[in-house]
Amino acid sequence: PLVVGGALGASELAPRLTPGAALGAQVGAGLALALWALARASLRDPGQGALQGLTHPSTRGPFARHAWTLALLLGIALAVRHAGPAAAEPTFVGAQVTVLDSGVTLSAPLAALDDARGLLPELQGVPAAVASLLACPPPPPEGFALVPAATPPRPGLLRLDAGVSPARQLAEQTARNLLHERLGDLGPLDTRLALREGLTRYVTWRATDGDPLPARTYAAVAHARRPFALAELFDPSSLDATRGIQVIGTLGEVWVAALVGVRGDGVIPELLEAARPGVSWPTVLSRLRIDLDALEQDVLRTIEAVAAEPRAQADLPRLFALDDQAEHPELQLVAVPDRTVPPGWEVVCRARFPGEPVIDALPLGATPTGSHRFHVPGAPMWGERPAVQVGLRARRSGVYPETIWEEWASPPGGEGFR
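The chain above was modelled as a monomer; its predicted structure follows.
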């Protein structure tokens, strides 16, 4: 049993080991099984050698069974070894991408150097392209660590195979750094948020793979659920109370793209120059002699074109929130989809009390009817009820890198709901 367990353990560990170590573990387990079979055969007749014992009539049957067991276990080990991707990305741990004078250098442990070098053509020139589009000086020196996809995202990391290419991650972080130098710190409802977030997404795809779709899918879904008006983008406070301020980036990107379509890349430095605290964008656009009605139509055509893109097709359900406090003294919520949630998507929920920051609700699991329960930690038991937002998040970002949120709403009570 110990030998058999060792063989299975070796096969289970294989995906976690380097290819050489995994192969060694499996071969070692196979040899142990072979020695075990030989030993059992020799014990049939202590007077015979192990190999002679294998050919003895009294041992051929048992040995055949051992041989079949050995072959089966080795087959399982090899199948597990080659089923699915090997976890090779941790070999990048310790690798660094450094932005210096708009160029990119890369250093990595010797074992990962060849693999890491394969990223250089994709990364080289990205910071310079971002700076050029923003008409900004070259970005300051900065280092980025190459890390496995499972690492939580944060500035200074390039996550491998996280659903977003390392080049896009590098472009986005470079754009954020340059725009922070230009615009400074912005408040949560600053009128310049639409420009900062829209430009970040716009220059990210322009400086990398030229694919705008991931930046626009959220805008397309939000527009399909309630038609978008350009005036929403210029009033962050109202936008935050309805759709949620998180949508300002995807809507801002189509706004920037429409402006560039009208005036070319030269409109970007003009917008940045006009981006003073408390800026009124209708006034700025009028001063730039841009017709607001025509611009809004360009924005809507850009958004609606996403619906015709085959890669963006997704039959996403609408979600409705219910307050299930009748059954629980603390605040619990139920998200009810109007049809089955498709594979690869998860339901998420958050709440906001008046004057308080947003609270991410903790999932409690799905009900037999397909609804999803959530608990809001730290919610007061008395007082005003919160506004609630429920949404869908793709487990692999792809062309849907952002959570698709419903609008903020006050959920009705769910007494007796199951």
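The first helix runs from residue 2 to 13.
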